[in-house]
Amino acid sequence: MLINLIHPTNNLAPQCKNTVQFNKIFYRNLFQLAIDGPAASGKSSTARIAAQRLKFEYIDSGSNRAMYRVVTLAALRQNLSPVSPEDASKITQLTATSHIHLHTIFNPPTISSSKPLSLPQTLIYLNGEDVTHEIRSPEITKNISGIASNPDVRKLLVEKQRAFANGIYYKDENLSSSKLNAIRKPMKGIVMDGRDVGTVILPNADLKIFVTASAKVRAIRRFKELQQQQSRTKNSSQIVDFNKVLEDLEKRDKSDYERKISPLKKADDAVLLDTSDMSVMEQADKIISLVLERAKEKNIDL
Q1: pLDDT in tens, 28-71
Q2: Quick one: CATH architecture of 2-297?
Q3: DSSP calls for the chain
Q4: Which residues belong to the signal peptide in this entry (predicted)?
Q5: Residue 104 — very low, low, confident or very high, per pLDDT cuts 50/70/90?
């Protein structure tokens, strides 16, 4: 799946006089499923399984965050400072004119007590160059906060995400025929998960679900994940402490709910799904049933 995330207009960046205009290639009317929720609520694992079983396209919160890393890389390559007010408008211009592609490859999900869930592999391109690994460098991590806090950049990246969710693609000389064919595969919907998908990115989604669970249950899940990671890497130098995991999770919740830009909150029209007593497969089954029910209500053929 190739996602051509190019800013379609310069409406969100009036200060960018040289914003490139792109011609629309085609438009697909996709069923939009927005899944939000706090950390370790099960939203990402469930979203992946639901997307695969429904044969929907999928973009996760990690891919959304990666876009900020791509812009950070682009800015540093132009010797622009992500934290400098003097460079803010130039970075906004750079964001508007940069070609960002996400190429996601699904792997069959592995559901067992001994094996972790199989994650989709997402390759990330900047102007046709694979920067998947480069954007994970310490230098990018150190500078990304300045990009993420730039409101004009955030608006542009949200617009790129919306364009993908709406099935809109734009002409780009870097797209080969084979990649265009990959885009045109017959998907009928998209699953996007994060913390502000239903409230900010896709406010008109066909179905919004807010996935949650008690802090204790979520801490137990995260604790087990960390133990499994430690076992796989055979790293016994650090002891995983449950109380510390719970404390960190509660701090993350506070930060997510109280942040000024795009805080975590349940959309008014979202379905609340408490997964405290549900397995990941039970969560996926419930979400799929909600999708099929909503599609029937809207006379959408999935």
Answers
A1: 578 999 999 998 998 988 998 898 889 888 887 667 778 899 99
A2: 3-Layer(aba) Sandwich (3.40)
A3: -EEEE----STT-TT-TTPPP--EEEE--PEEEEEE--TTSSHHHHHHHHHHHHT-EEE-HHHHHHHHHHHHHHHHHTT--TT-GGGHHHHHHHHHH--EEEEEE------SSSSPPPPPEEEEEETTEE-TTGGGSHHHHHHHHHHHT-HHHHHHHHHHHHHHHTTEEE--TT--HHHHHHHTS---EEEEEESSIIIII-TT-SEEEEEE--HHHHHHHHHHHHHHHHHHHT--SS---HHHHHHHHHHHHHHHHH-SSS-----TTPEEEE-TT--HHHHHHHHHHHHHHHHHHTT---
A4: none
A5: low
